[in-house]
Amino acid sequence: KSSGTQSGPLQSLSQFLPCSSSPSLPGPPSLFIIGNMKELAHDHLPIHFTNLARRYGNIYQLKCGNTTMVILNSSEVIKEALVKKWSDFAGRPISYTAGVVSAERRTISLGDYNEEWRAHHRLVHSALQRCFHQSLHDVIERQALHLRKILMDYEANAVDLSEDFTVAASNVITSLAFGKEYDKSSPELQQLHSCLNEIVALWGSSWISALDFFPILRKFPNPVFHRLLKEVAKRDEIIKQHLKNYKAQDKKNGDTITGALLQGLEKYNNTDEGVLLTDTHVHMATVDLLIGGTETNASMMNWIVAFLLHRPEVQTRVYEELCTVLEGRYPKYSDRHRLPILCSLIDEVLRLRPAAPLALPHRAIRDSSIAGYFIPKDTVIIPNLFGAHHDPAVWTDPYSFRPERFLEGGGGSTRALIPFGAGARLCLGEAVAKMELFLLTAYLLRDFQFVLPEGKSSPPDLRGVASVVLKIKSYEVIARPRPVTSP
Ligand code: HEM
Q1: In ligand 1, which atom is closest to the CA atom of 288?
Q2: DSSP symbols for 335-391
Q3: Helix (H) or strand (E) holding 234
């Protein structure tokens, strides 16, 4: 089987076959005990998994210790698992280290799919919805204007903008969560970022994942794990202080997520729902939003600028569209339907460099099947979104940066674009992320032209560094103010 998927009558038939009769999943040869650990030690897993798909098909397995992982590499098989059979695959792996970083899985992102998670998810989702309608646009506009001022102050000098993008994205979340924003130099902000970044980086390291695959290793000293525990304690202290300060304020309101969550908690616990949500759920939801909403959006902004340096004519077309449609004013999110070239730019960068290229791992809650293969309960499912976005069966010239593929007649397929995942575990911040990427990009491209620093002939390296978030290596750029910039 060249594609690794079955279609037509064979597929329908195989879904009813007992497990022993269904074909066994392809995959690289696995060595006793260590299994396919070698494949998991690759420095850029999304690219490596995508290359393995060319050999083993769009669905294959890897083994490590007692864990079987199934890697899904096309939007068709990903949607079969996450949308069509969502109730079979909505779980998260129950790992020791996930428990440690998530107060025993009381986060949305690492919580397993059960009654408690559903109640928690409903609470956070409705708090976000409320902020989306009441304050999100204003919050993002303020950050966009602030970013504009910072870029003006650089006076067209060559700079690395990554920290400014991180501060803007983080301020959107802290404004939503606590009604607070920070300056780049604020020690409070630096402490928060360094601790969240450390947690994500340490948790993604093989020193930590080895503890999940080989439980015996937990008996030995592990300095990396020790550092992780210290950072988690630091993180919890910072968030606890924020929540304490928030509760001590006179002016508590439902405009902030924390206010909406606390109000929702009271309401929820006064109904007879059978699950008790506590302050820990509010605490961990804040962690989810800060981790989920900062580096993802910041890295997308870095990628957008980098890709534009590779094709300056795309930047010119977006600028001309902004001038024609907006006639000098700043954009609103409702303008997006009239700005197709800008939207195609954002979609193409989300396709080529999805911020969470391997999504988050899922777990089969019960025996099921994908593409005709039997998938036993507790199998870990990895949706390779990066691979799906580079599938040559769907995308013409998949590795090229061609935003025009999403425009009329360009041959693109937004249906196969899944940077936020799909189904029951769809990214909780998708609406926030989309509005933020749109407004920040529109504000910046309206007022600045991004160019390479003088004497630098080659644009930034686009391979990226893959951990949980796919980031670009740091690079410098000049933000040259456009001639007429005031509204
Ligand atoms: C989960 C992508 C921004 C909060 C996810 C997942 C992906 C993703 C692929 C995993 C879906 C799965 O498990 O199948 C992105 C991208 C972003 C972004 C590409 C920006 C461009 C945000 C923002 C927030 C956020 C701004 C918060 C405001 C979350 C949370 C989850 C999640 C809480 C866990 C959902 C669950 O487990 O059910 N995101 N995300 N993300 N994201 Fe995002």
Answers
A1: 33
A2: GGGG-HHHHHHHHHHHHHS-SSTT---EE-SSSEEETTEEE-TT-EEEE-HHHHTT-
A3: helix 223-248
How much of the chain is helix, strand and coil, in % rounded to 5? 55, 10, 35
Residue 268 confidence class, pLDDT cut points 50, 70, 90: confident
Q: Which of 427, 430, 468, 470 to mutate to test the pocket of ligand 1 (most atoms within 8 A of CB)?
A: 427
> How does strand 380-383 pair with strand 67-72?
parallel
Nearest-CA residue for atom 26 of ligand 1? 293
Amino acid at 365: I
- State yes or no: ipTM above 0.90: yes
Dihedral angle, C-alpha 105, 106, 108, 111, nearest 10 °? 30
Higher-confidence residue of 204 and 43: namely: 43
Q: Which tokens hold the place of 195?
A: 């601790």
Provide CB contacts within 8 A for 366, sequence distance 6+: 88, 377
Mean pLDDT of all residues in 342-364: 97
What's residue 272's pLDDT?
A: 66
State the distance from the centre of ligand 1 to the C-alpha of 425, rounded, in angstroms.
Answer: 9
CA 388 – CA 422 distance, rounded (Å): 13
Cite the annotated binding site for heme by residue number. Answer: 427
296 touches ligand 1 (CB under 6 Å): yes
137's CB contacts (< 8 A; 6+ apart) are 332, 333, 435, 439
> Residues within the annotated binding site?
427
CA 347 distance to own-chain centroid: 14
Q: pLDDT tens digits, residue range 2-16?
A: 333 334 444 444 344
Looking from the CA of residue 422, the nearest atom of ligand 1 is 14
Whose C-alpha lies nearest to ligand 1, atom 5? 427
Task: Give me 351's structure tokens.
Answer: 């396709």
d(CA 198, CA 195): 5
Would you say the CB of residue 46 lies under 6 angstroms from ligand 1? no
Q: Is 299 in the pocket of ligand 1 (CB under 6 A)?
A: no
Q: Which of 9-23, 274-288, 315-329, 457-471 has the highest mean pLDDT?
A: 315-329
Condensed to tens digits (0 to 9), the pLDDT of residues 308-327 reads 999 999 999 999 999 999 99
pLDDT at 25 > cutoff 90: yes
Neighbours of 94 (CB within 10 A): 13
- C-beta separation of 86 from 424 below 8 A: yes
